[in-house]
């Protein structure tokens, strides 16, 4: 009985990821309102951030407790699609609608479509056990969190600019570009130079730019992920 309870701990954390994504999606439809004195856009950022934290913790818990399961793998993908595909898409769509972009705003639905394809490819691709091919879907959500925060602080760009950005970032998820994983096997500097670089860059971007700095951190991650030898997937 104890072992059965322990085996469900990672899945329970994954469900918290899913709930966070659902909450972020709901909040994205109330961007002009406030809750508990905080603008709804910030609640979307918070819930997507919470989903990312739970997404990291469920894998860590599974490894620590040795509680791997096929159900857990499928549940993780379904949760990620909601939290990192649908939630950021609704954030982008409603931001564009609020800016008066009309029916063009619905092009944001391209994000979860490509996100679903990305997750499906990941689940059947044995090349992605220790690294990634294409932009990970959590990175997609982090990018859009920063990008929309930038739009809210400055100005929503012309619709064609946003549409090109949506298409580019979405297609990156299903691309064949090798990208390294941010999961640490150990903490040795030499073996984790790029991982530490991303962490340090993210901290600096957020300190100097605020939430919009998250978008710059993903761009930085993309740039340093391009390996010298494209025939190998970076670990």
How would you explain this protein's 3D organization?
This protein has helices at 2-7, 9-28, 40-65, 70-98, 110-124, 137-153, 159-173, 193-209, 213-225; strands spanning 34-35, 38-39, 131-133, 178-180. Strands 1-2 form a two-stranded antiparallel sheet. The protein contains 9 helices and 4 strands. The longest helix is centred in the middle third of the chain and has 29 residues, at 70-98. The protein is globular, with a radius of gyration of 18 Å. It has 235 residues and is mainly alpha-helical. It has one domain: Four Helix Bundle (Hemerythrin (Met), subunit A) (Up-down Bundle).
In brief, what are we looking at here?
The protein has 235 residues and is mainly alpha-helical.
Record keyword descriptors for this entry.
235 residues, Four Helix Bundle (Hemerythrin (Met), subunit A), two-stranded antiparallel ribbon, 9 helices, disordered C terminus
Query: What is the CATH architecture descriptor?
Result: Up-down Bundle
What is the helix content? 55-70%
Give the tally of β-strands.
Answer: 4
Nearest-integer average pLDDT: 90
Structural class, from helix and strand content?
mainly alpha
Shape: globular
The CATH superfamily is: CDP-alcohol phosphotransferase transmembrane (TM) domain
User: Low-confidence spans: pLDDT under 50, at least 5 residues?
Assistant: 228-235
Helical segment count: 9
Strand content: under 5%
**Biggest sheet: strands side by side, in what order?**
1-2
Main β-sheet description: 2 strands, antiparallel
Our count of domains comes out at 1
C-alpha-based Rg, rounded: 18 Å
* CATH class call: Mainly Alpha
First-last Cα distance: 38 Å
Secondary-structure element string? HHEEHHHEHHEHH
CATH fold naming: Four Helix Bundle (Hemerythrin (Met), subunit A)
């Amino acid at each position: 009985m104890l072992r059965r309870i322990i085996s469900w701990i990672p899945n329970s954390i994954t469900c918290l990821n899913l709930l966070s994504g659902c909450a972020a999606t709901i909040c994205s439809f109330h961007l002009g309102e406030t809750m508990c004195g905080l603008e709804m856009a910030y609640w979307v950022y918070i819930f997507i951030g919470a989903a990312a934290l739970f997404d990291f913790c469920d894998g860590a818990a599974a490894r620590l407790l040795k509680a791997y399961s096929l159900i857990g793998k499928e549940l993780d993908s379904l949760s990620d699609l909601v939290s990192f595909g649908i939630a950021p898409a609704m954030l982008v769509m409603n931001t564009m609608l609020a800016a008066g972009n009309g029916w063009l705003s619905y092009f944001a639905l391209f994000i979860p479509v490509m996100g679903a394809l990305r997750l499906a490819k990941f689940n059947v691709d044995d090349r992605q056990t220790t690294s990634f091919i294409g932009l990970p879907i959590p990175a997609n959500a982090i990018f859009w969190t920063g990008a929309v925060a930038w739009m809210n602080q400055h100005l929503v760009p012309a619709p064609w600019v946003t549409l090109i950005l949506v298409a580019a970032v979405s297609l990156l998820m299903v691309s064949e570009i090798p990208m390294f994983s941010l999961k640490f096997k150990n903490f040795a500097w030499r073996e984790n130079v790029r991982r530490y670089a991303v962490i340090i860059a993210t901290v600096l971007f957020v300190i100097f730019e605020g939430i919009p700095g998250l978008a710059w951190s993903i761009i930085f991650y993309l740039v340093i992920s391009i390996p010298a030898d494209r025939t190998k997937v970076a670990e």
